[in-house]
Design goal:
Helix content: 25-40%
Shape: globular
Number of helices: 9
Order of helices and strands: EEHEEHHEHHEEEHEHEEHH
Amino acid sequence: VTAPLYRPAPALLPVMGIDSWLTGKRGAALPFTDECEPLFPDPESFAAAFKELVTFGQERRWRSLEIRGGHHWATTVAPSVSFLGHRRELTSDSAALFNQLDSSVRRAVRKAEQSGLEIEFSQSLESVRDFYRLLGKTRQRHGVPPQPFRFFECIHRHVLDPGHGWVVLARIGKMPVAGAVFLHSGRSAIYKFGGSDDAYQSLRANNLVMWRALEWYATHGFASMDFGRTSLGNEGLRRFKLSWGTSERAINYYKYDLRTNAFVTVHDQASGWHSRVFRTLPRSVSQWIGTALYKHIA
């Protein structure tokens, strides 16, 4: 749904309506995205547009409206929850790009290059299947269920197969041991999903996957690589992303309760008691739970 917004000085906020038996009817800008910042010429224009959007949601009996990203329009509103975002500006000089990485990353890449790993760039559904098996292992280590495979089939059909992204896999022989999914549009790319087999962690395959992807995008005219959002409490992932020479920024989410007409505070649920439970579940059970619930909470 794209709500009709303020015509004299237009603002734009793509919104999708969600009708879930678990989380209720709500609007999100946008589901399955880390960030979708509103576009507008001035705060007054967005204030008028937001008022129309609230009316739009109330007419459809949404319980809430969530805006993912932005802060300059909400100078008097505290974020409902905040994350960190990391972005790397790219240069076509791959040697300079490599030298700007942390020394620990450069050592890991060199070690991976000497370990017999082969890097594969692919847009095939079979490569998505190989990546998904790695993702399942990684999500179990993190204590969260994996997204349903159908979700990745849709990414393949609508994004990868038309040429707007890559599955990058590191293999030992024919065996995939690490991989990542990168998406791109225009001159911007995003590192969206990553997975690996922990039994081969010493090979530093994840580092080689990331470096070869950065190098490919840099030498093919892309201007930036986005590393996605990071929970404030995940210091290890934050350090990993910073080690690639990224700049850091806040990503603020704003949730508006349409029943009370007020912004509300929510908690980042990336970790907690449920993480300990999911780490102990068989992977097949965790995958079934992810298939059943992911569409309701994204």
